[in-house]
Amino acid sequence: MKFNNKKLEKTSKLINYIIAIVLCGFLISLSGKLLDDVDEWEERPTVEEFQNIELIKTKYSEIEKIETKIRLKSEKRISIINTIKIVKNNYNNAKKSFDNWLEARKTIGSPKEDKEILSRANELDEYYKTQQEWNKELSESNNQINLLKKKKAEIVKLIDKEQDRAYNEREKAIKKYNLKVFLIRLLFILPILILGIFFIIKFRKHKYWPLFLGFVLFSFYAFFFGLVPYLPSYGGYIKYTVGIILSVLFGIYAINKIKTFIEEKKKELKKSTAERAKKVETETAEKALDNHMCPSCGKDFIVKKWDKSVGKKDKTETYGIVTNFCRFCGLELFKKCKKCDSENFAHLPFCSNCGDNMNDKI
């Protein structure tokens, strides 16, 4: 079964769009691969590139030595604490024994044992002195550990300061790197965008327009989705500024285009109806008839009429009247076929009743 004209037109448009989309898809995939590879042409800046490695190594070596000293001091501190516990326990046991013995002596009351009291009291004093010496040793050990920890904290602070400086330098380098990558991508994408815009302007009526359309879709996708996301932000100022510039440029282009079109349409309407009728294309005539509008000025050719005589009081019915001539520009719209006298749209090539050629009768 053969397609009629409408089906053929719809099928043709569908095939054209499929061709354009498929071509656009392959171009996007290829460009995406190229744009991603740009980021691998050079290695991204790393923090290590901006660090004073020798300084950091030296400081970490010092920290390691300090940690070794702290570990040894901590082990010694634990040993001191255990010794103090033993000494304290010995003192408590000796004192308890002495107190018990002293109570017994008071009961017995033997003056011969005064030397024994002094001896035991001296023994308790020795235990107490030993305990105090170990407490002093523990205090010194704690002070030494605290000093070592303070020194370690100062070194860590210096390392952090050096790393912060390196991170700041890296951020600056990354901004320069991203700008460089963006400019390379811009050099690749901008000509594609300009070429796409050129194709829109020059090749819209070309027989290979679907292929050009695929490239045009790709060029806009490559610019707005492949390039714009990589645009350096600088707090959003760059992106917003670029958006404003593009909006202004597009606005100027669109306003000028509309103004030019209106001016050309005004000039065209000043020409005779015969001249304008010759320039109406069949496709334009078909669309104009479907939308009941004049193919020259684009105004509706159906005139509304009101009939108040029908039905109830004050009830108004509206209906349309098709005019043979456009009431706005005077172009002939409908005419009779000279062969069969049937009414036809004047800008279609053949009579709808007898098939006679009407182009030479306009």
How much of the residues is beta strand, in percent? Answer: under 5%
Category by helix and strand content: mainly alpha
Count of distinct strands: 4
Low-confidence runs (pLDDT<50, min 5 residues)?
Answer: none
Order of helices and strands: HHHHHHHEEEE
What level of helicity do the residues show? 55-70%
**Main sheet attributes: strand count, strand direction, barrel closure:** 2 strands, antiparallel
Cα radius of gyration in angstroms:
50 Å
Molecular structure report:
With 362 residues, the protein is mainly alpha-helical. It folds into three domains: 17-231, no CATH class; 233-270; 281-361, no CATH class. It has seven helices and four strands. It has helices spanning 5-38, 53-108, 114-202, 209-227, 237-270, 273-278, 282-290; strands spanning 302-307, 317-322, 334-336, 343-345. The strands form two sheets. The protein has a two-stranded antiparallel sheet with strand order 1-2. Strands 3-4 form a two-stranded antiparallel sheet. β3 and β4 (343-345) form a beta hairpin. α1 (5-38) packs parallel to α4, α2 runs antiparallel to α3 (114-202) and α3 (114-202) runs antiparallel to α4. It is rod-shaped and about 160 Å long. It starts with a helix and ends in a 17-residue tail after the last strand. The relative contact order is 0.07. The model has no long low-confidence stretch (mean pLDDT 78).
